[in-house]
Amino acid sequence: MLELRDIQVTRGDFILKADLAINPGTRTAVIGASGSGKSTLLSLIAGFLAPETGRVVWNGTDLTESAPGKRPISILFQDQNLFPHLTAAQNIGLGLRPDLRLDRAQQDQVAAVLAQVGLAGFSDRKPENLSGGQQSRIALARILLRARPILLLDEPFAALGPALKSEMLTLLDQITADMGTTVLMVTHDPNDARAFAPQTILVDDGVAHQPVATAALMDNPPAGLKDYLGLP
Ligand SMILES: Nc1ncnc2c1ncn2[C@@H]1O[C@H](COP(=O)(O)OP(=O)(O)OP(=O)(O)O)[C@@H](O)[C@H]1O
């Protein structure tokens, strides 16, 4: 279980509070108005921001003092975090060894995940020679290879068109179901939340709330969320 116990975290003048728990292997959408604190919440879990009070706990282990790289977490942001000067295979290989000195078995692992995301022949391409959808697949292949138990996504496919976005969510769905990953995904799109995540954390008025059923929240949104979603 991922627990945020009595958290208070500050960013400039902004304060976010969170006291919630997420079951392992579940998918949770994170939704809220612009500036409500969604990215702050992910940064806190990832360890880029330290709370003034409270603990971040994963399956009973206190992560609060752990450095980001030591946490059981992968993160995917909108820009896909690909390095432009590295090939597809190298970008993925970074997930295994930051110095890229991969042995034969590790090279085979990279080739295997490339095939798994449907890009078997693309290992030597640099990001500039890949489409947006292919870049997203490379980013997903890296996640697959790292196989960390928690995955944080901050509007990962927002730059893609609707068809590609839906394709990527399906691929993400397969990958994370196979690995039993606990997923938190920030999204601005209620349809993505409905399609991907049975439960949703509403971030509103400086509070990240305990997750509730996505369908119920979207069917009957509180006033702030209603305004944000542009609903009558
Ligand atoms: N580096 C920073 N220094 C000071 N204040 C910050 C910093 N980053 C964010 N904030 C403030 O923290 C608040 C929450 O920002 P955050 O990025 O978490 O919101 P968000 O819900 O992810 O927004 P968006 O949907 O627009 O990305 C905002 O009021 C923002 O102005």
UniProtKB/TrEMBL annotation:
Keywords for the protein's UniProt record, in alphabetical order: ATP-binding, Cell inner membrane, Cell membrane, Membrane, Nucleotide-binding, Translocase, Transport
The reply to whether Chaperone figures as a keyword in the UniProt entry is no
Protein's name in the database: Thiamine ABC transporter ATP-binding protein
An example of a GO molecular function for this protein is: ATP hydrolysis activity
Q: Where is the ABC transporter domain?
A: 2-230
The protein's superkingdom reads Bacteria
Q: Which GO terms describe its biological process?
A: thiamine transmembrane transport
Name the SUPFAM superfamilies on file: P-loop containing nucleoside triphosphate hydrolases
Q: Does the keyword Membrane apply?
A: yes
Q: Which GO terms describe its cellular component?
A: membrane
